[in-house]
Write a structure and sequence with these properties.
The chain is mainly alpha-helical. It is 84% helix and 3% strand. The termini are far apart.
Length: 196
């Protein structure tokens, strides 16, 4: 490798690899510093020559905008107050509606309970009435049956009495000497009535 010696300092080839970039960096840094200084001077000249613009138009506009903002603030305050009033009115209406709904619900429950009581009482009265009517019908049927039995017994008794009377009359008629019929002929003619 090549060696360079300058005033007793020897630099070999591998060290040159570090020296050249270092020299380039130093030169680049100096050039950047000079450019920065030049730009600084140009900027200082511009700052010295700067004249402030006339902002009086902006001030007028800002005043107008402040007035408009104040007017908007008043409108917002009025709107907030109106919103509060509306909210209060709506709350009052909602509470009133809730109270009315609760009252209707209470009346409905009361009416429903009363209706159930009336229905139960009506069912009870109907059942009692039905049982009473059934009892009356049974008694009527029983009484009617008993009367029919009594009447049939009475009719049977009357028929038996009538049969006995008729038998007596027939027997008397047959025993009558004036009667031309004899007992044997009467038996043939009326076998059920003649006593043996």
């Amino acid at each position: 490798m090549a060696k360079v010696e300058y005033k007793g300092i020897q630099i070999s080839g591998t060290k040159w690899i570090f020296v050249f970039p270092l020299i380039g960096t130093i030169i680049g840094g100096l050039w950047g510093g000079f450019e920065l200084y030049k730009r600084y001077e140009d900027m200082e000249k511009q700052i010295q020559s700067y004249v402030a613009p006339d902002l009086s138009g902006f001030d007028k506009r800002i005043e107008v905008m402040k007035g408009e903002v104040n007017a908007l603030k008043e409108l917002v305050a009025d709107a907030q107050e109106s919103a509060r009033d509306i909210r209060t009115d709506i709350k009052g209406e909602v509470n009133k509606q809730d109270d009315q709904i609760a009252a209707i619900d209470k009346r409905s429950r009361t009416n429903s309970r009363d209706t159930r009581v009336i229905i139960r009482n009506a069912e009870k009265n109907f059942n009692e009435l039905e049982m009473g009517i059934l009892q009356m019908v049974r008694e009527l049927i029983s009484n009617t049956s008993k009367r029919w039995d009594d009447k049939l017994t009475k009719v049977d008794t009357q028929i038996e009495n009538l049969e006995k009377k008729i038998d007596k009359k027939i027997t008397k008629a047959l025993e009558n000497p004036l009667a031309a019929m004899s007992k044997s002929s009467a038996r043939k003619k009326f076998p059920w009535n003649v006593q043996r």
